[in-house]
Amino acid sequence: MTNRADLHTLTGAYATDSLDDTERAQFEEHIGQCPACAQEVRELSATAARLGLAAAVVPRPALKEQVLRSIATVRQEAPRTEPGPPGGTVPRAPLRRASRWALAACLAAATAFGATAVWQHREAGDARDQAREVQQRTEELASLLAAPDARTRTANLAGGARATVVVSEGRDRAAFLATGMAEPPRGKVYQLWFNDKGTMRSAGLMDPGRTTSALVMKGRVGEATGMGVTVEPAGGSPEPTTKPVALLDFPA
């Protein structure tokens, strides 16, 4: 059994879902009596959510072609002006090797910083819009997780996945966080639902390309007492068409 002194050190492990069932139960009992740990968990959970939502901006294939064309027309090194060796013999092999290394370095840099360069490209408007949308969702989720009245409930899902629902009564909003979920079948998507006392109400779609997800559920909590997840056709369904892969009651 974990002693009380040790429980204060488990905030990070709890926020990243790294505790076993026994430790989790002990810690959840502890944070109900320790406001400092409860606040730290909210802050760490918000940070973890930001990391989970981070989306890399992939440069367009045309960017690589543009870099390669530019390399062919831009001098890699300035002409050497220092005196040559006696006898007028200039060793050219080292210069050619240096030029090849410079070219390789340029290509490596272009690849490593392609995601940054795309922001400066004149056709990167879609990428900027996507980044703004991600930033807005991240801030909304972080704000909900840090709410003073935020309550959480975690459950094990099939295949070793874990899901956590976070509810703020004051904000009338809920968030869903999941790790290790299997990718849905091709042409399918995970759809979230509010459980309004037996009637399921759509609460948005999960990104089909992610096995880890953290998002604010669409719509108000209202009278909902729990939530569920089903596999639906791409674009979602007006009501569930399959057996739930997850059902969680909202924390009291």
Automatic annotation (TrEMBL):
Membrane topology: Single-pass membrane protein
Ranges for domain Putative zinc-finger: 12-38
Lineage: Bacteria, Bacillati, Actinomycetota, Actinomycetes, Kitasatosporales
Main location as per UniProt: membrane
Protein name (Swiss-Prot/TrEMBL): Regulator of SigK
Gene Ontology CC entries for this record: plasma membrane
The species this protein was found in: Streptomyces typhae
Keyword line: Cell membrane, Membrane, Transcription, Transcription regulation, Transmembrane, Transmembrane helix
Molecular function per GO: sigma factor antagonist activity
The keyword Cell membrane is assigned to this record: yes
Anti-sigma K factor RskA C-terminal domain span: 107-245
GO BP of this protein: regulation of translation
